[in-house]
């Protein structure tokens, strides 16, 4: 196998189930909460849930996000899953808090349980816990080899991805995946968020 042409990866499926006891950052109107998911805070990997308009401080999304992650991002501690929570507002969304967790730690925990797990983690704002808790499930697939695209294919994929993202956001209100081949840690974000 030509390692210059292919990279060893695993599929990673993340389901944001719900959050509980979020702090109230909006005093006059009801809270409508959504989450943004990224790897290491990188905008190229960022995806978001729909806004929960009913649960207020206990939102439920059941939002499924699929990624392909390079094996190097799984076996080393550097790659972080970052999930940030916001309250939707017309005058600008208000930050609630976030969680950070290592992909390696998630993999090791799930691997001891057959490749998948359900976790509840505390949501923090800075170094302080907010009292809120996120419940999510995730699953890692078996190792697979993915072909790295050439330079011109990367350029074409980037252009097509940006166009699809703009059209998808404008017409469907969902984030369309952005291909991301700059690093071997994360190869691609797969498919649309499933409902």
From TrEMBL:
Residues 1-119 form the C2 domain. InterPro entries: C2_dom, C2_domain_sf, C2_SRC2/BAP. PANTHER family: C2 DOMAIN-CONTAINING PROTEIN (PTHR32246:SF22), INGRESSION PROTEIN FIC1 (PTHR32246). This is Soybean protein regulated by cold-2.
